[in-house]
Amino acid sequence: MDDAGKADENGSCRILVADEDETVRRSLCQALSDAGHLTVSASNRSELMDLIDGQAFDLVTLDIPFGGDDGLALAHSLRMHHNIPVIIITAQADPMDRVAGLEAGADDYIAKPFHAREVEIRVRSVLERYGRLPHPHELAGELSFDHTVFNLMRRILRKSDNQEIHLTETEFKLLALFLDNPGRILSRDEIWQKLRGRNRNPLDRTLDGHIAHLREKMEADQSNEGLIRSVRGVGYVFVGDVRPAVRVPSDPDEKS
């Protein structure tokens, strides 16, 4: 049986949260709902399997052990027989437990206590890997972050005071890459490969110059790194909260 789901037209995915702890279930459901997903929860194996057999889900978060059952065997079954991505979220934080979980077929492994933002990012990463989450460019012509709107069609930034900032081709590609990967550290080599389609010369500092110019356009306060932060010896990470922009008409009678 293949219960593979698909995000709806708004980009919402159906996620099944399986955990014995009611507090954890509520916390996970809240975090994933805030991220725009539809959530259903199960407190034991019987509930989980009834839901799996009756509905289509895009992903399952699974605690181990779960209801006295072998959570690893359950994760393996979900992946092999139902083709559903699985993220294990558990208090078993030993490195060998993580290895066992991944070997059982889990797509990711998160140790408790967890941060809601980390769960959101990891869930999105797995959903994108399986093609179940539309690319942000498919969901909206505009993305918002830190009181700024990024218009993908016009390739401009619009600040909260409606000031428009035009981007060069390279700056546009850089920002689009960062907004597609919020919270994920991107190496200089990976960024350069995405921009130019070729390997980067380790002595070439051109990329750092492009990012410096992009920062100048994005950040009013240049005294700190702001949203695009350097990771020493590795690359850069975008730390803003990225969401599809909601356009509010300035004229009450204006129609979309």
From TrEMBL:
Domain Response regulatory: 14-127
InterPro entries in the record: CheY-like_superfamily (IPR011006), OmpR/PhoB-type_DNA-bd (IPR001867), Sig_transdc_resp-reg_C-effctor (IPR016032), Sig_transdc_resp-reg_receiver (IPR001789), WalR-like (IPR039420), WH-like_DNA-bd_sf (IPR036388)
Molecular functions (GO terms): phosphorelay response regulator activity; transcription cis-regulatory region binding
Top-level taxon in the UniProt lineage: Bacteria
DNA-binding region (UniProt annotation): 140-240
SMART domains: REC, Trans_reg_C
4-aspartylphosphate PTM positions: D63
UniProt KW keywords: DNA-binding, Phosphoprotein, Transcription, Transcription regulation, Two-component regulatory system
Every OmpR/PhoB-type domain range: 140-240
Matching PROSITE patterns: OMPR_PHOB (PS51755), RESPONSE_REGULATORY (PS50110)
Gene Ontology BP annotations: regulation of DNA-templated transcription
Name under which the protein is recorded: DNA-binding response regulator
Organism from which the protein derives: Zhengella mangrovi
